[in-house]
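Preliminary data (for renewal application), KG4 complex.
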Amino acid sequence: MLVLGVETSCDETAAALYDSQKGLLAHALYSQADLHTQFGGVVPELAARDHVRKLIPMLRQVCRDSGCELADLNAVAYTAGPGLVGALLVGATLSRTLAWALDIPALAIHHMEGHLLAPLLEDSNLAFPFLALLVSGGHTLLVSAEGLGVYRILGESVDDAAGEAFDKTAKLLGLPYPGGPVLEELAEKGTPGRFRFTSPMINKPGLNFSFSGLKTQVMVKVRALQKAQLLDEQTRADIALAFQNAAVEALVIKCRRAVQATGADTLIISGGVSANKALRKALNDRTKRIACKLHYPALEFCTDNGAMIAFAGCLRLQAGAVNEPLSIFVKPRWPLTELRPPSAANADVG
Ligand code: KG4
Ligand code: ZN
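Predicted structure:
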């Protein structure tokens, strides 16, 4: 079964071909970061227009790279939400049109289900049920994943997402968009212990997160240092490290708590922030003494990509998902808990 995956939910254009027998055959990604960096964040209209420019050449590229032709496809899976409406519509329109022309199913995939399944892409021993920490630019979720499409939210951010906090803090420190990876690089040069920020929500019971207060702590410190003309390069690195430590601490504590509360033996960590080395190290160190295995996607599949969408589509198709109505729809806001297993979702379509 050969599935084309199309991802255009935000500022990355991505396509991939996944074969149920042979695995991932090809994938391509184009990041619009350079286009948006001058604005300090994603400009939705520019993002949509750029997807229009990049998507069809990318489709040709994955076909060329894999030696497949469009006629070989068994389905097209595309990100239908959550995300930016204009950006989503580009991928949805191309995917539905292609599927209609080839007379094959088109499957609307939830972007966060894509992230949740990404660690399974290259690890065939990993199976439901498991716990998942999903940390991206738009979401911070602790999920109990009981089966394909059966997800229970155990905790979530009550304000900014973890990646958003990295991006906003990076901006305060004068770093370019997207801030997460650059802030991580700067933090590597930081002096441990020079600054300390309070990790948000760690003393409150429960599994929710909050990151906007942490960003405010950084803002107050940065403004004070700027006023005193003390914000030199080393000081910025020291602040970056203190911010990263506090953010990582909040994520690690809630993960440990979730594992202990549920008795889960597998925790997967996915989404853009799961590429962060300090987070990976802290989680590995701090879960040694609890019997829970950690799984991450390969680095290239932590952030947005087409492979996770093709893979999610393939799993859904194998589990009996059927073609959806022809209308082109997207869901810019789409709670993960609205998903159903493919068999139940088919009943909705019918
Ligand atoms: O999953 P993703 O590519 O897109 C969304 O679904 O939002 O995540 C992007 C987010 C951005 O906020 C980016 O700054 C953050 O992930 N990110 C990182 C790192 N790499 C990406 N944050 C911290 N450390 C990183 N190495
Ligand atoms: Zn994402």
